[in-house]
Amino acid sequence: MNTEKKYWLFKTEPGTFGWDHLKLLKNKKTHWEGVRNYQARNNMQAMKKGELGFFYHSVVRPPLIMGIVQVVKEFYPDFFAFDKDSKYYDIRSTPENPRWFMVDVKLYREFSHPITREELKSHSALANMTLLKRGTRLSVMNVTPKEFKFICKLRDVEI
DNA sequence: GCCAACGTTGGC
DNA sequence: GCCAACGTTGGC
Q: In angstroms, how far is B5 C1' from A157 CA?
C-alpha cells in the first residue's frame, strides 16, 4: 500500500473566496465547496487528513500562491449542492446519492510574501508542473513532492 | 457513441 | 478585453 503523503493545489478566485477570507474565519478553516468537475473531485477523494496543499489565487494579476493549507476533514458530500438557494445547487446531487463532494482545509502557513506565477515559471525545476501547463483549468490538482518542497524552500518554509 | 456547438476558465 | 483550451451538452 502506498502511504506516501501527497501534495495538492487549491485554486480560487480571491474576489469570491481568497486568502483574506480564510484568515477571517473561525479557526481559519473552511469547506472547499463548489467543485463541479470530476477530475478535481477525484483529486479531493484521494486526499488524506493532514496532507498539505498550496492556496492559489487565479484570475488576478499576477496570479499568486498565497500560502499552505492542510486537509482537516476528508472527502464528504458537498451539501451546498442540496441547497436550492446556493449557487452550487445541483438537482442531480441528492443526500441519498451525492454526486459532488468536498474536503475541509485549514490555514497552515502563510508565505512571507506570495509567490507569483512568473516566479514559478522562472525555475526549471518546475517546468513540468501541472499548474504551469497551458490550458490547465483544474481547480484542484496534484503537486509532486519534489515540486512542493522546492516551492516551500523558495520562502524558507519547512514542512 | 460520435462530435459539433456551446459555455467557462484563466493567462495574458 | 481577447482568445485558446477545455469540459459538457445534446442531437443524431
A: 47
